[in-house]
Design a protein that fits this description.
Shape: globular
CATH topology of the largest domain: Rossmann fold
Distance between the termini: 40 Å
CATH class of the largest domain: Alpha Beta
Number of domains: 2
Structural class: alpha/beta
Largest sheet: 8 strands, mixed
Bound molecules: 3-hydroxybutanoyl-coenzyme A
Number of helices: 11
Radius of gyration: 19 Å
Length: 281
């Protein structure tokens, strides 16, 4: 069972993964390219833990103990002690390949390397490492501390043992794993992202306002938040890159990204993380 976890990337997903792993009693090494990114990641974890303390979900002592289990570094060499490394860097094939190679080069031979990619092929990423049998997709959902699901995605070479131990890890940190075969968008994003993209087309065509589209899906379909508010939560840049992968890999025009989505990303309106998306924050 994993005791020391490396998490590469201190952004929304990476810091959430670091938080839930540390909260489950594991030692976490959080890696990013500079100290500022690491400090932002830690501040976001502290803020999330504060909310949980306020709601009596955890004690103040548990908050402190969780934070104390997270070390921060820009040195990949420290990943040499990890039983499991989860890459949660930006959703870009070349960047991910470079990062994975770097981690693979310093990790123990028996350690597992996982990626939190939301849309890139697990088989292709695995092939950029020396451990395709010990390489797996581990896809978390935003916000990581609240969402129960993780997808465990097996690439062509992922071993049964790797799938089992990663599912065991997921349960140990309080998540519910589902097994998925490598395929564009895996299972959940394949269904979710085209729905959000369609909501953006609906807005772009003036069919209804953003507020009414979201109210429609909340009150008409029982969704906890509307698709446009969810786009802002996920990040419009991430959503666009997912849709671009679908469009390219499936070769089907039903996956074309909405022009308004492209325009919003070009304008730097990424959603919550940039302060503005379909709504202002
Ligand atoms: N940590 C701790 N607590 C948090 C939190 C965090 N990161 N984020 C929100 N909360 C708490 C809030 O403090 C709030 O507490 P309160 O009820 O005591 O005030 C509570 O959660 C509810 O938050 P809000 O009132 O702000 O908003 P909601 O009632 O809408 O709930 C939600 C928030 C649980 C996120 C809910 O909106 C939801 O379930 N949304 C759907 C999320 C979803 O679909 N995620 C998947 C995205 S797809 C993805 O991630 C895949 C990727 O690859 C694209």
């Amino acid at each position: 069972m994993s005791k020391t976890i490396g998490v590469i990337g201190a952004g929304i997903m990476g810091n959430g993964i670091a938080q839930v792993s540390a909260a489950a009693g594991l030692n976490v090494i959080m890696v990013d390219i500079n100290d500022a990114a690491l400090e932002r990641g830690l501040a976001s974890i502290a803020a999330s833990l504060d909310k949980l303390v306020k709601k009596d979900k955890i004690s103040a002592a548990e908050r402190e103990a969780t934070l104390a289990r997270i070390s921060r570094t820009t040195d990949y060499g420290q990943l040499a002690t990890a039983d499991l490394v989860i890459e949660a860097a930006t959703e870009n094939l070349e960047i991910k390949k470079r990062i994975l190679k770097q981690a693979d080069g310093v990790m123990r031979a028996d350690a597992i390397l996982a990626t939190n990619t939301s849309s890139i092929s697990i088989t292709e990423l695995a092939a950029s490492t020396t451990r395709p049998d010990r390489f797996v997709g581990l896809h978390f959902f935003n916000p990581v501390p609240l969402m129960q699901l993780v997808e465990v995605i097996s690439g062509l070479a992922t071993s049964q043992q790797t799938q089992e131990s990663i599912a065991e890890f997921a349960r140990a940190i309080g998540k519910a794993p589902i097994g998925v075969r490598n395929s564009p968008g895996f299972a959940v994003n394949r269904i979710l992202c085209p729905m959000i993209n369609e909501a953006i087309f609906t807005l772009q065509e003036g069919v209804a306002t953003a507020e009414d589209i979201d109210t429609g899906m909340k009150l008409g379909c029982g969704h906890p938040i509307g698709p446009l508010a969810l786009a802002d939560l996920v990040g419009l840049d991430t959503l666009l890159s997912v849709m671009e992968v679908f469009y390219r890999d499936f070769g089907d025009t039903k996956y074309r990204p909405a022009p308004l989505l492209r325009e919003m990303v070009a304008a730097g309106r990424y959603g919550r993380k940039s302060g503005e998306g379909f709504y202002k924050y």
